[in-house]
Description:
- 53% of the residues lie in helices and 14% in strands.
- The chain is an alpha/beta fold.
- The protein has 3 domains: 3-191, Rossmann fold, CATH 3.40.50; 204-257; 268-365.
- Helix 2 (41-52) crosses helix 3 and helix 11 (207-217) runs parallel beside helix 13 (244-255).
Amino acid sequence: MAELRQIKTKLIGKDEVFKVLALGEATKLPVLLLGDPGVGKTQSLLDYAAAKYGYNREKVRENTYVIELDEGTKTSEIKGRVNMKSLLEDKEYKIDAPIADAQFLLINEVDKGTSGVRNTLLSVMRERALFYGDEIKPCKWDVMVGSCNVIPNDELENPFWDRFVLTQKVDRVDTAAIKEIWSSPKAQSLEVSVPTLEELSQVTLDKNKMSKFIEIIYTAVSDRTASYLPKLVKAIKHIYVLDDLEAIMKTCELVAPSMLTELSAKLESKRENNVRTQIEGFSGVANGGNEPYTQMYVGNIIRDLTEMSEMNTYKNKAVTLAAELLDEVVNWVGDSNISNELVTYVAEKYQNITAFNGIAVPSHKTHF
């Protein structure tokens, strides 16, 4: 049965990161977190792991392992080392391999390791085990995470990075969220449902939509990633509480973001596509300098989104599209001298649409 994981964290705006970690746990696929130093990549995993053990520090310490790679890291730190105490005192040959024993593993700065270290990691990720002659030591990971600032441009085709099927960008929080931290430094709580593999096997998917999905993104993913897509879409459908189309779109965002626009055009309904096209055209209209027309243009989009939100078929998509509209308006106002009144208007409508559907408004969407 799915486990409801109650995550307590002082991190702001990391809900998406925790859901991707839940995806990694549910599907047993490695996760790669990308982002600048200090954005909370390490703390996100530690908070996620702590929730598993009811915030029992000793259990968290026993079952979580974090290693920092650099040019001096040796392959023995990945494969494990002989326990000299056991060898000398008990005459027992024993390998200490914290990477295999950890249930929550984080390998920081994975781009800094030598080719030898990363080849070893590649083997471990592929087999989920360490090999010592005839002995095989299985890895116990519930979640295996790598992190770095960015994948080097000259390594984008390296098979090592393809092993991280789930890649999530961890962004900085905005200034409003930082002020919120100043005024209320208390931990917040987030609930994530982590399904079992048995539960995922019972989730059904629309075969026609899945067929179109792979046809569209085929050239942008490896055969390895393609083989995981059904399980991944099912997990996203469960964890994010989405319908088939929304789950497919979210999966594309994670594994082949460059194909998202094309996929949207092929899979979304005519109505959704029309609204998305209007949202994408907002900046062009706004840059025309005709403020009354801009307000009317946005009002028409809001009207369509409100109508969609009142229909069961479209209500979740209405929330997603309303959030995209709000982001477009905020980014445009940030680069102009025009009043923030339009932002306030769209933010209020976004909150109305979100509240109507019983969905909590993300904290970073409420500060403008």
